[in-house]
Design a protein that fits this description.
Blueprint (H helix, E strand, L loop, with lengths): L1 H23 L3 H25 L5 H30 L16
Helix pairs in contact: 2-3
Amino acid sequence: MKDTGRQTAKSDKSDKSNSKNKQSKITSRQIVAMAGVILLVLLYVVTLILAVTDNSASGKFFALSLGCTLVIPIILFLYSWMYGRITGNKAIGDPDQEDAPGE
């Protein structure tokens, strides 16, 4: 029975180390996505502050925020797609995916 306890303890330790490795692995795609989210949130906050303080530049920042709401996600998608193509990994939106629906 002691052997079973030792095996269980070893498997518990290996499960914990595997979960640490899975949790601590951050890809460059995730970093770029978080940077994009932070950039968009900062744009919205600045636009809101300028609108509340009735600054003359608030209209320009509102137009900038609207434009960036469309442009930044497109740029992030293109980065993710190109990164996948360069590294050979599958990326979302790849036209030559083997597991495409309908095949």
